[in-house]
Amino acid sequence: MTLLHSGRCIPASAVHKVQSALNLFSLYIVTPSLPTPAAVKEYLLGLQARIVAALESVDGQAFGTDSWQRPEGGGGISRIIENGNVFERGGVGFSHVMGKNLPPSAAANRPELAGRNWEAMGVSLVLHPRNPYAPTVHMNVRFFTATAEGQEAIWWFGGGMDLTPYYGFEEDARHFHQSCRDALQAFGDDVHPRYKKWCDDYFYLKHRQEPRGIGGIFFDDLNTPDFAQCFALQQSVGDHFIAAYLPILQKRMDTPYGERERDFQTYRRGRYVEFNLVFDRGTLFGLQSGGRTESILMSMPPVVTWRYNWQPEAGSPEARLYSDFLIHRDWV
């Protein structure tokens, strides 16, 4: 799309930037500083629908829908694809759950939450393409609030996205990290460097002494300067996911591969499983709060292998993943 101004053609990229700025300006005007969970829920449901539609257009196979209820309160909608044309497994889940007693993973460092009713909602996705040259990706945006009669609500946002390639391509890494920076640019020049480092530190397997992938951005406990700006940041992260990932997927999903590449992919997927079950706060929160196990563990890859003390051949593409990509690096 282009626009004409004084006889000159304005490119679509410029129009998009202006529209994004107007959307953020509008949000600050109409969104109150007090938390409005209903507005967050409306956005998250729309985000889930938009992402699923974009993924279906690439795969050519529809995602299934699994709606569920949680006995203690709330429920969710899990959109799942298995054995698709592109995705071996993928899940884009929405959940909105509530309760009276927080699990240890949430209350351990927040004693002020004791005795409060809580409410959590979010969209979380993990996509495992079948082709080893197409990377696994994770994205999550979430909102949490805890209330008590006669007291001010405690609330915060969290989320982020990160990329886990099996075979590294510098142009893919640069594109993904540029998209992450674009998502945060409107909120200050210092935000992206902080959230990138947070991601590098968070998605790190301490027992392996290696990153899970090439990182991206991660944030949690976001509640300043006010609800409107925090909500705007969450929306920007969610809205940038499709542009961050789909161009990479479409570039790599038809690359020829053989048994060697597939074997390495399933080996590296083991690292993904280890992180999710040992360190991931979202997984721990879901399981400890009595969440729906099938939806919590939909992030697991369908085919995984482990080997004892395996090392890649020196100079191989597999070795290059470790030396050039599984390192903390400024990509943009």
Automatic annotation (TrEMBL):
Record site: Important for dimerization: 207
Domain of life: Bacteria
Binding, a divalent metal cation: 128, 138, 177, 207
Region (Important for dimerization), start-end ranges: 272-307
Pathway participation: Porphyrin-containing compound metabolism; protoporphyrin-IX biosynthesis; protoporphyrinogen-IX from coproporphyrinogen-III (O2 route): step 1/1
Residues reported in the UniProt entry to bind substrate: 124, 140-142, 290-292
Function: Involved in the heme biosynthesis. Catalyzes the aerobic oxidative decarboxylation of propionate groups of rings A and B of coproporphyrinogen-III to yield the vinyl groups in protoporphyrinogen-IX.
Protein's recorded name: Oxygen-dependent coproporphyrinogen-III oxidase
Gene name as annotated: hemF
